[in-house]
Specification:
The chain is mainly α. It has 11 helices and 2 strands. The protein has a two-stranded antiparallel ribbon with strand order 1-2.
């Protein structure tokens, strides 16, 4: 904002809510990456490409169904499954043969996969910008704390916590979730109990990628869908997972809140330097706690 301009409570509250809604998208994507890191020990650079595929898939499914409310909800439901299918093919054909390799090799492999998926997206959808409209129910704004706030952003504020609760219930209350957590600690012991660890890893990888696709589908109505949208999100997701604690879901939530809110308040106070605020926060946190704010599962 301009120097000398008074910051009203309504403006402050609006930016706070905007930051929270952005943090929910970041959390959904980074929680998937954190889950894969925690169970498989795979630093999946291609996670951002799967997020991009989720956004493009949402556009195509909605367009095929003629848009509108039904097109939006069907796209939102099916797009993550499209991404899950792509990730399952990649995991069974490629990843499952590489889990015992060094992390550097896995990192290079997922970087190559990112480039391949980026080219496939370009071949499939072209290089043009696409747009995916939210249904009329979520268009426009409503008064919140003295300012107008987009309805769709409020929807994101509901979805984010629901995803967090669902992921926590899955990892802590279901049999497959508990097996995945055990495999993350001692995969040899889990295998010795007669459990097919390979398919446990496949499921964990697909679930993490499903969340990337869900994040892409959710963000699609708020941005221009385009080639290269994966680059920013993968950098942000890696930083969030790092400062939160590798493999820690609640750390991913905390890191997402810090990233989203610092950027939002940066726009409010010093818009010309807003993009630097989240990275300054990340630097300070890593100096203070190099292993992340919450306990890493590694």
């Amino acid at each position: 904002m301009e120097t000398g301009q008074t910051i009203t409570f309504a403006a402050f509250a609006n930016q706070f809510l905007v930051g929270l809604s952005r943090a929910m998208i970041l959390f959904i994507v980074s929680s998937g990456m954190s889950f894969v890191l925690g169970v498989l020990r795979v630093p999946n650079v291609a996670h951002g490409s799967l997020y991009m595929i989720g956004a493009f898939s949402a556009f195509s499914i909605s367009t095929f169904l003629g848009g509108g409310t039904m097109g939006f909800w069907v796209a939102l439901i099916l797009s993550p499954f499209v991404v899950a299918l792509v990730s399952l093919i990649a995991e069974r054909a490629l990843f499952c043969h590489l889990y015992e390799r060094e992390h550097l090799m896995l990192l290079l492999f997922t970087f190559a996969l990112m480039l391949i998926l980026g080219d496939l997206v370009k071949l499939t959808w072209g290089a043009e910008y696409r747009s995916f409209m939210a249904p009329l129910t979520f268009r426009g704004s409503i008064p919140v704390l003295g300012s107008s706030f987009p309805k769709y952003n409020l929807f994101l504020l509901v979805v984010g916590p629901l995803v967090a609760i669902g992921l926590w219930l899955f990892t802590n209350k279901t049999k497959i979730g508990k097996i995945a957590r055990a495999a993350a600690v001692d995969r040899e012991m889990v295998g010795a109990m007669g459990i097919n660890v390979s398919w446990v890893f496949a499921f964990a990888f697909v679930l993490g990628c499903f969340l990337a696709g869900l994040g892409g589908a959710l963000v699609a109505p708020t941005i221009s869908i385009a080639i290269g949208m994966d680059h920013d999100i993968i950098m942000e997701a890696f930083l969030i997972v790092t400062i939160g604690g590798l493999g820690n879901m609640w750390g991913a939530m905390l890191g997402s809140l810090i990233f989203g809110l610092t950027l939002s308040f940066g726009v409010l106070f010093l818009p010309q330097f807003a993009i630097a605020f989240p990275y300054i926060a990340v630097g300070v946190i890593l100096i203070w706690r190099p292993t992340g704010m919450l306990k890493s599962v590694w």
